Structure prediction request, 339 residues.
Amino acid sequence: MRGRLAVGLIGAGRLGRVYARDLASRIAETKLVAIADPVEAVAKEVAAEFDVARHYADPLALIDDPAVDAVVIVSPTHTHRELVIAAAGRRKPTFCEKPPALSLDEVAQMQEAVSSSGMFLQMGFMRRFDAGYASAKKQIEEGRIGTPLVFKSTSRDPFRPSLEYANPKSSGGMLLDMGIHDFDLARWFMGEVRTVSTIGATIAYPELATVGDIDNAVASLTFASGKLGVVDLSRSGIYGYDIATEILGLEGTLRIGYLRETPVMLMTKNSVAHDTVPYFMERFRDAYTTQLQNFAQNVQQQRPAPITIEDGMEALRIGVAATRAHESGRSVVVSAIKS
Prediction:
């Protein structure tokens, strides 16, 4: 029987704790052997919770640890470049959460390090591992809806993030941080994006304007194939976490997503009601686990990464183009975005 992959986890925040649980207890192929977080007390706490022997305040010390065979990075985006380059220097297989970085220049440095070292790097875009999205991709490949013509994707958060997180200097802003999932799906389902036009505004949470972010946006896409797309993003979907995608094809349409979390409907006089998905942890619970399991299996079986640093680069390029289209009020050619 193949041994478990000894994984070191960098980042013990909200999502990092979920990854720690999965790597330690839910994935047969992995063993969580080390945790790093700049807040040492947090690293120690999470390590104790999941019976992990090593914890570090310095993530580079984790990467250097000879007991760590593979690295999972789920730290803030601005740290990704340094950590991926360090892991490449030690040729340790690495999983890196999206976005790869906040700028294309940084991603280019990451690409160079990955390429020159020959390391295995898999990017994290968990929606591709969601059962609904995976099924839709398969059905499109099987020709069930004919040629895809129009891509429509909606991402609505039930509340705004903290102002510290929303600040584009930290997260890249809504179009990058939120939209990158939808832009990645657009490429996955439809191919490369040629142009993007964006309208956006701060209309629900005026305080977001103090850090330079927006709370609602609509991006129109044209693909290299000539097909069309639209992405709408909102931080003010107060009714729940609403993630949905529709692909209109020549011979049919696929709709992906759901809003009702619990399979119960309450029907009373003049009313039919149900609950809604609370947030991303609940909506993509299984996708996160499947994604990490796929990473471990790919490393063990020496399979190529299904989502590469190039995928991360191109999704980010669309996000940068969408942001500049919003700032300029003009349509932007995606391939013209170089940094």
Q: What stands out?
A: The chain has two domains: 5-126+286-307, 128-283+315-336. Residues 128-283+315-336 form a domain with the Dihydrodipicolinate Reductase; domain 2 fold (CATH 3.30.360.10). The two ends are 46 Å apart (CA to CA). Residues 9 and 35 are 5 Å apart (CA to CA).
